[in-house]
TrEMBL record:
This is Kinesin motor domain-containing protein. ATP binds at G104, Q105, T106, G107, A108, G109, K110, T111. Residues 22-366 form the Kinesin motor domain. It comes from the Eukaryota. Transmembrane segments: none annotated. Belongs to the TRAFAC class myosin-kinesin ATPase superfamily. Kinesin family. KIN-14 subfamily. GO terms for molecular function: ATP binding; ATP hydrolysis activity; microtubule binding; microtubule motor activity.
Length: 398
């Protein structure tokens, strides 16, 4: 009886979350960095769901307003940002798939939101550490009824190629001499790329990337350090590659119901996207141009997929990029999506800020979303009441 009530309660909670819409867009404004504190901000008024941008004369002097599910100003803490993300994370333990993206131009705070600053403190932990921490915590709370296993993968997509970031033994390190020989003749063979399989066994989109079981935040931090190092290795060859590749931390959760033996699987992708800035036309040649084209292609493919989902379109164009192929099973259907769009407050970022916000609004299809919420708010209310009465019933039993 007791467990049934708990179970029922959890189902209703997820239904309430479902009715709120499966795609959410949060906007986060980075504060000025210490050495730029005297500059003027392009960000005017901010409230819970709206942000006003002050545009200079070049862009039609005046104000432009944008609406999102949530707007975090420059003083929002990592904890505050996470607290609005938490419900999504819990639903992974109930077998849902979740995608969380960080979008924005380089330097706008994507990595800060997802991982935190370079010098990590407990307070500055980003969404990915907090998410795992939460998963450990809740799975422990449920240990009487469920047995959970949590494992992570970390991959990078660069120029439409998928690479494992959790590997210690790439061919680069083991056979430096062979590598040089190969480099001369078979450059394409050297690239240690992986294939994407959709609907593969165990729900792994990249079955050949290392899948590492984790049980504590300490282990997670170690793994992330390995991932960061592997990303840095390639960064020296092509300066700051990290801003021109997508990195994806995937958390796989498998839970076995101890009473029935039924197994449920959920997974969560935490994606730090490549910088969305457009490169200067005069500057973009050769490799730089190729990178820029790949980034444009994959970010617009992602935008197309999410807006097709938001509009409940019958055709969802997953096949247009590696990124959307990778995330196919976790975008749409029962899956939940959250995009953090990041903007910088500086005046010289205004053009990127406006195009970032326009992209985000397109993704959110805000008008559609708002209409739906209104239509369904009665149901949400009803479900909330049911949750409340179940909670009361539970309290009586205890
Ligand atoms: P991106 O990953 O989008 O290129 P970063 O996350 O690296 O950007 O942020 C750029 C710089 O700004 C870093 O030094 C980072 O620590 C700092 N920063 C970003 N967001 C915040 C924030 N919300 N609060 C304080 N510092 C931030
Ligand atoms: Mg970054």
């Amino acid at each position: 009886g007791y467990h049934k009530v708990l179970e029922e309660n959890r189902k209703l909670y997820n239904q309430v979350q479902d009715l709120k819409g499966n795609i959410r867009v949060y906007c986060r404004v980075r504060p000025f960095l210490p050495r730029q504190s005297s500059s003027m901000s392009t960000v005017g008024h901010i409230d819970d769901g709206n942000i006003m941008i002050i545009t200079p004369s070049k862009y039609g002097k005046g104000h432009k307003s944008f609406s999102f599910n949530k707007v975090f100003g420059p003083f929002a803490t990592q904890e505050e940002v996470f607290s609005d993300t938490q419900p999504l994370i819990r639903s992974v333990l109930d077998g849902y798939n979740v995608c969380i993206f960080a979008y924005g131009q380089t330097g706008a705070g994507k990595t800060y939101t997802m991982s935190g600053p370079k010098e990590l403190t407990e307070e500055s932990f980003g969404v990915n550490y907090r998410a795992l921490n939460d998963l450990f915590h809740i799975s422990n709370q449920r240990k009487e009824t469920f047995c959970y296993e949590i494992a992570v993968q970390m991959i990078e997509i660069y120029n439409e190629q998928v690479r494992d970031l959790l590997t210690n033994d790439g061919p680069q390190k083991r056979y430096p001499f062979v590598k040089i020989l190969l480099l001369l003749f078979f450059i394409p063979l050297l690239v240690n790329t992986l294939d994407i399989h959709n609907s593969s066994q165990k729900g792994l989109a990249v079955p050949n990337a290392n899948l590492v079981p984790v049980t504590s935040t300490t282990e997670v931090i170690e793994l992330m350090n390995i991932g960061q190092k592997n990303r840095a290795v390639s960064a020296t060859a092509m300066n700051d590659r990290s801003s021109r590749s997508h990195s994806c931390l995937t958390i796989h959760v498998q839970g076995r119901d101890l009473a029935s033996g039924a197994v449920l699987r959920g997974c969560m992708h935490l994606v730090d996207l490549a910088g969305s800035e457009r490169v200067n036309k005069s500057e973009a040649k050769g490799d730089r141009l190729k990178e820029a084209q790949h980034i444009n292609k994959s970010l617009s493919a992602l935008g197309d997929v999410i807006s097709a989902l938001a509009q409940k379109s019958s055709h969802i164009p997953y096949r247009n990029s590696k990124l959307t192929q990778l995330l196919q099973d976790s975008l749409g259907g029962q899956a939940k999506t959250l995009m953090f769009v990041h903007i910088s407050p500086e005046a010289d970022a205004i053009s990127e800020t406006l195009s970032t916000l326009k992209f985000a609004e397109r993704v959110a299809s805000v008008e559609l979303g708002a209409a739906q919420v209104n239509k369904e708010s009665g149901e949400v209310k009803e479900l909330r009441q049911q949750v409340a009465s179940l909670k009361a019933a539970l309290a009586k039993k205890e």
